[in-house]
Amino acid sequence: MSLSLVVITDGEHLDNLKKTIDSVADLVQEKVIVYQGTDESVYAQIQALADFSVFTTPKGNADLDRNFAYGIATQEWILALDDDEWVPQETKSFMAQIMTSKTDIVWFNFKNLVDGVDIKDILGDDPHPRLWRRRDGVINWPNQAHTFPQFGSPLHYFSTLEIIHDRKYGELFARHEKRAKMMDPANVDLEKRFIGALKQKLGKK
Description:
By secondary structure, the protein is an alpha/beta fold. It is 34% helix and 29% strand.
């Protein structure tokens, strides 16, 4: 089985992006990086990390470019990661095995860290579909920020293994502020409640 890694990045933290890529470098056959930015020097650095990279218009959120990004991939499977996520060894070994099965979409729990603090008591297991077979209609994202994907296959596998989502509070808060301008009001309210719970847990003012 062959695998494409697809990452959408704003290019602000290339060290994080490199960690994302390095965590699965020996598993993937193709690295596709979509850069939502305008800095040509940053783009040149991203090109050095990827097999294929492309500029897109800055949108402030990865969701709006998801279908475009995944459509660039050429391998049998797609692994979608953000530039603040990385894959532990146990999860990576499992990925190599599950791609030989008859499933089409694989979900993983997220271990959410903010300033190094595990916030599972706020977000729970936080499962996400991150690995799927590259075939028309298997999975599709609406063209709107922070919406749920649509599935065209009933063949899902829910793993209890984790992908690490490692963020800094200041950056997380700033991104939530940007996203609020593009999201449905109901989702904005959910985000506000999340930020409130996070502030309390981390002792932020």
